[in-house]
Amino acid sequence: MEEGCRLTDHSCGTTCTQDRVMAYSRLLLLLIGVMYLVQARPTDFWCNRQARKTMEKKIQGLRTDMVACVGADTLPSPVQLPCVWVHAAEWANQTLQQKCAEVVAALRGFRDGVQGTKNHSTSECQTSLLEKLEHHIANYVAIVSRLQTQNGTVTPSRSAVRKCSSVNSTSKVLQQYGYLLKGKLERLAVDLRDDVPKVEQRTTTTKGRCS
């Protein structure tokens, strides 16, 4: 029973149940909306900026959910976040495999941090919000990890992720997460746009280059 609902108020109980159903429905739609990108060919994501922007826009939906959830911006425990900014010189000296590994490691750092603070949350709507964010990050992990596999790269064992910040608010987590997607992930997409078709040609008849 949601906080504020009285046991004797049957109409409130119905409303609370409907709210839960709507929340679960939104989560299901979120998952359905991104599963196509996870299962599609790499070029459907890496060579299509609009496809990447569609996934990025899901963050705005999470911000809207946060506003509707009283107290959701205050996290029960601080989240240690990985570095999200691209250092041009360091990035330029890395191989594509190293860049993929760096992006995957950063995404996993966000996912683990969100999962950790979610497990300490006592608010139902905040837990639901963090769970949606966790699923959103997991989809990116799957996409980049799949690229590593198709590129003939063995996924490296987990190493210590370089942490650059510690935050106590959901809005800050979403902000830094957005920076990661617009920074390192987008830079990786630019570097990969001519290489993804080569990878696909090993297993399919697809030809052509990213435009």
- How many alpha or pi helices? 9
From the N-terminal CA to the C-terminal CA, the straight-line distance is: 52 Å
Low-confidence stretches: 1-12, 27-40, 199-209
Name the helix and strand elements from N-terminus to C-terminus, one letter apiece: HHHHEHHHEHH
Count of DSSP strands: 2
How helix-rich are the residues, as a percent range? 55-70%
Radius of gyration: 19 Å
> Strand percentage, roughly?
5-15%
Biggest sheet: strands side by side, in what order?
Answer: 1-2
- What structural category do the secondary elements indicate? mainly alpha
Oligomer type: single chain
Major sheet, described briefly? 2 strands, antiparallel
- What average pLDDT do the residues reach? 77
The dominant shape is globular
Structure write-up:
This protein has 9 helices and 2 strands. The chain is mainly alpha-helical and 211 residues long. It starts with 9 loop residues before the first helix and ends in a 10-residue tail after the last helix. The model is unreliable at 1-12, 27-40 and 199-209 (pLDDT under 50).
Pick out its properties.
211 residues; mainly alpha; two-stranded antiparallel sheet; globular; disordered C terminus
Q: What is this structure's SSE topology?
A:
Layout: H1 10-39, H2 42-46, H3 49-56, H4 58-68, E1 74-82, H5 88-92, H6 96-118, H7 124-150, E2 163-169, H8 170-192, H9 196-201
Antiparallel strand pairs: 1-2
Q: Summary?
A:
The protein has helices at residues 10-39, 42-46, 49-56, 58-68, 88-92, 96-118, 124-150, 170-192, 196-201; strands at 74-82, 163-169. It has 211 residues and is mainly alpha-helical.
